[in-house]
Design brief:
The complex is a heterodimer of chains A (336) and B (411). Chain A is 78% helix and 0% strand. With 336 residues, chain A is mainly α. Chain A has two domains: 2-76; 97-335, MetI-like (MetI-like fold), CATH 1.10.3720.10. Chain A is flat, with a radius of gyration of 26 Å. Chain B has two domains: 42-151 and 300-368, Periplasmic binding protein-like II (D-Maltodextrin-Binding Protein, domain 2); 154-299 and 377-410, D-Maltodextrin-Binding Protein, domain 2 (3-Layer(aba) Sandwich), CATH 3.40.190. Chain B has helices at residues 2-28, 54-69, 83-92, 104-112, 131-137, 159-165, 173-182, 199-211, 222-236, 249-257, 271-276, 313-326, 329-339, 349-355, 360-368, 380-395, 401-410; strands spanning 42-47, 72-77, 99-103, 116-117, 138-139, 142-143, 145-146, 149-151, 154-158, 189-192, 261-266, 282-285, 301-308, 342-343. In chain B, a hairpin with a 2-residue loop joins strand 5 and strand 6. In chain B, helix 8 packs across helix 16 (380-395) and helix 16 runs antiparallel to helix 17. The radius of gyration of chain B is 25 Å and the shape is globular. Classes of the chains: A mainly alpha (336), B alpha+beta (411). The interface between A and B is large, with 42 and 40 residues.
Chain lengths: 336, 411
């Protein structure tokens, strides 16, 4: 998430810088007509200085809070960084050993597949349900506003609270979900949602979908509001109503918003940690272990900070691919 | 034009000030270190007893020890999960407390960094301590930490349920299996333990593994496979819920208290909660062994007190006095009684067990209890991960116990 917000900030900065450049330019045209050249030069220098002064806080902030951790993490991934390093400051250089170790571990492929399934499943579910709800709330009906704000609830709860509650709901023996299904006679024995190797990932994806719906709903709803009513009116005269209206008016008009939601969603889902830790701790038998949870485990439970950092960087690179895709997509839409 | 520039100047100044401010703040932070020649009036202590009633029990003992040593105690309690990261943070910023409490399996990890002072530097006596307690506190032949009281796990059973089913508390694995099957009916499971993918899952498995001769150095052995086979059989035949794969020890206690498990593997720290329910009658026995001739070996739990290398000799000396005082016979007995733990000196065991019959099983177990880090030291976390991975693989049926252990050991 942070990566994409960075880049969108950077975009804005680039744009505002471009504006700044344009304005002083037109000023200086005027200046050339009014005043002699030495004054012009000092003014120009002063303007350049101010431009830098305005940039400096942002640059320092970025360097301190984004640059430093990223650089530190990259350096750490090439070191034998252990608990002793904290006290002695000594971290021997080990080259690519950390990467070789985590990438060749038998757990890596499991984590990679789980991360892919988790991300894909979560995004698909969140997006489809979020879009359906957004379209539903487009209609005018009583309590629309209240219901919509109630749907934001999962977003407002601390993740550790949500996962604790869901852990109880999904419990095999006394969980609310199994009780409910039992009363309806859909199942007669407890479904081991979180303790079966085939169901745990599905259950975790389900909870993550529940958490992600508000985000998708809010942004897609905002996007839908932007589509002018006239288009639908004109479309209905030509016979485009219902599904056809969605296919030929809503979807094309919503495309830019959809790409933002999807890319942000992917980057956000890749790094999910607390929900999985709270629900299953990566179990049973690593069936919900993702790259994020494995990296956390290596660093903070096994104290292999170098290996944890290496795995973390792998995750950053994967996120970066999506961030670049997003940047290219948004640049194209600006160009258009 | 000119006026426009003038109004901009204060803004530029403000920006420059804002940029400079953090630098100024960080500059100020490094000036507060007292010289070691001053008389020590106050020492800092950090521990993870952040919940009542333990928070007060430990706090009171510390205050009393402080008075004895002529210093006031500045105590900080942090949540258990964040203690080690906090210690690492402090050791890199050279702000470690004068007295530091650590969970015993973490001691060697921290001692290996060089952040702790050996207690022999301060002539603190280590006689009479149970061998397990000393091996947990020792790194490279030097004792770095001592625990006033320790704990372990045993088998709790619900007296009423067992009496009704005509079952006596099991002592061997076969008896355990038969009893657990017999006690399973409807919503009630015969036994509850936790086998979750954390060190807690490993901890609960250690009694059966160690008592049967298994060893953490190499888990790919028939002895450990037999132990894991027992755990697997109990889950497979339904006498333990498969939810054990995700339960914590607190969940296990809740199941037992709700009458949903007739027996459970748990520790004495659950006793206050169990005693709150007057209708619950429970007993405690050792965790069964495979063959009646085997001795039960339990894993040692508990927290050790240490003196970090703060570089201030006078303060370290005072800190050592406090650590010695916390480990005195009187404090061991008093703290063990109120906290439902066991004194770590074997010389106190007989008296303590007589005064606290409820804790006699645990007191007995401590004499032979084994420290998790006794053999592997800093290598323990990696091996503990392999153990819980193997447990999870076997209990979910992904591999037979022997194969699961072989895979995990090879990783």
């Amino acid at each position: 998430m942070s990566l994409t917000t960075d880049s969108s900030q950077a975009n804005q900065q680039a744009r505002s810088r471009a504006n700044q450049r344009a304005k002083p330019g037109s000023d200086s045209v005027r200046a050339r007509e009014e005043s002699p050249s030495p004054r012009r030069r000092s003014r120009k220098r002063r303007e350049r200085l101010f431009q830098w002064l305005f940039l400096v806080p942002a640059v320092i902030y970025m360097a301190l809070f984004f640059g430093y951790p990223v650089v530190k993490n990259i350096v750490m991934s090439f070191q034998d960084y252990t608990t002793a390093t904290f006290f002695t400051g000594e971290a021997p250089w080990v080259g690519l050993a950390n990467y070789a170790k985590v990438l060749s571990s038998s757990l890596f492929s499991t984590s990679l597949v789980n991360t892919a399934l988790f991300t894909l499943g979560s995004i698909l579910g969140q997006f489809v349900i979020g879009l359906a709800l957004a379209i539903f709330f487009q209609r005018k009906f009583p309590l629309n506003g209240i219901l919509r704000s109630l749907l934001l609830l999962p977003w407002l709860l601390p993740l550790i609270v949500s996962s604790a509650v869901w852990r109880w709901i999904l419990d095999k023996d006394s969980g609310a979900l199994n009780r409910f299904l039992g009363e309806l006679h859909i199942v007669n024995t407890g479904v081991p949602w979180l303790t079966s190797t085939s169901l745990a990932l599905i259950a975790v994806v389900g909870v993550n979908i529940w958490i992600g719906i508000p985000f998708n709903l809010t942004i897609l709803y905002g996007g839908l509001q932007e589509i002018p009513d006239e288009l639908y009116e004109a479309g209905s005269l030509d016979g485009a109503t219902g599904w056809k209206a969605f296919r030929h008016i809503t979807w094309p008009m919503l495309r830019p918003v959809v790409s933002v939601v999807l890319v942000l969603g992917v980057v956000y889902t890749l790094k999910v940690l607390d929900i999985i830790l709270g629900l299953t701790n990566g179990g049973p038998a690593n069936s919900t272990q993702t790259i994020a949870t494995q990296s956390y485990d290596l660093s903070f439970h096994e104290f292999k900070f170098g290996e944890g950092a290496a795995l973390g960087n792998v995750l950053v690179v994967i996120s970066l691919v999506f961030a670049v895709l997003y940047l290219r997509a948004s640049r194209r839409s600006v160009d258009e | 034009m000119k006026s426009a520039i003038r109004t901009r100047r204060p803004l530029a100044l403000a920006v420059a000030a804002l940029v400079g401010l953090p630098l100024a703040i960080t500059g100020c932070g490094t000036t507060s270190s007292a010289s070691s020649t001053d008389a020590v009036k106050e020492i800092s202590v950090m521990d993870y007893y952040n919940n009542e009633p333990d928070k007060s029990f430990i706090g009171d003992a510390l205050t009393a020890c402080g008075i004895k040593a002529g210093v006031t105690i500045k105590r900080e309690t942090v949540p258990g999960k964040s203690l080690v990261s906090k210690v690492l943070q402090q050791s890199s910023s050279k702000t470690l407390p004068d007295v530091l409490m650590l969970d015993n399996p973490d001691l060697q990890q921290i001692a290996a960094t060089g952040a702790l002072a050996p207690l022999s530097d301060f002539n603190i006596s280590t006689t009479d301590f149970a061998p397990g307690v000393l091996s947990a506190g020792t790194y490279k032949d030097k004792v770095y930490g001592l625990a006033p009281t320790v704990n372990t796990i045993a088998l709790f059973y619900n007296k009423d349920i067992l009496a009704k089913a005509g079952v006596t508390p099991p002592t061997t694995w076969d008896e355990l299996k038969t009893a657990a099957t017999k006690l399973t009916s409807g919503e009630q499971y015969g036994l509850a333990f936790n086998a979750n993918p954390t060190y807690e899952g490993t901890w609960q498995f250690l009694p059966v593994m160690w008592s049967n001769g298994g060893d953490e150095k190499n888990i790919d052995t028939p002895e450990t496979a037999q132990a894991l086979q027992l755990w697997t059989d109990l889950v497979k035949d339904g006498s333990v819920s498969s939810s054990a794969l995700n339960w914590t020890q607190a969940d296990v206690k809740d199941q037992f208290m709700a009458g949903k498990a007739a027996m459970m593997v748990n520790g004495p720290w659950q006793i206050p909660a169990l005693d709150k329910n007057a209708a619950l009658h429970y007993g405690v026995v050792k965790i069964p062994v495979r063959d009646a001739s085997q001795t039960a070996v339990a894993p040692l739990g508990g927290e050790v007190w240490t003196v970090p290398q703060t570089g201030n000799k006078a303060r370290q000396a005072k800190a050592a006095e406090v650590v010695a005082c916390m480990n005195s016979d009187e404090n061991q007995l008093a703290l063990a009684k109120v906290r439902n733990t066991i004194p770590s000196k074997t010389s106190l065991a007989a008296k303590f067990a007589a005064d606290n019959p409820k804790l006699s099983t645990f007191t007995d177990l401590i004499k032979t209890a084994r420290a998790r880090t006794g053999e592997l030291g800093e290598g323990w976390p990696a091996q503990a991960t392999k153990i819980y991975t193997a447990i999870q693989t076997a209990l979910t049926g992904k591999a037979s116990p022997a194969d699961a252990l072989k895979q995990a050991q090879g990783q």
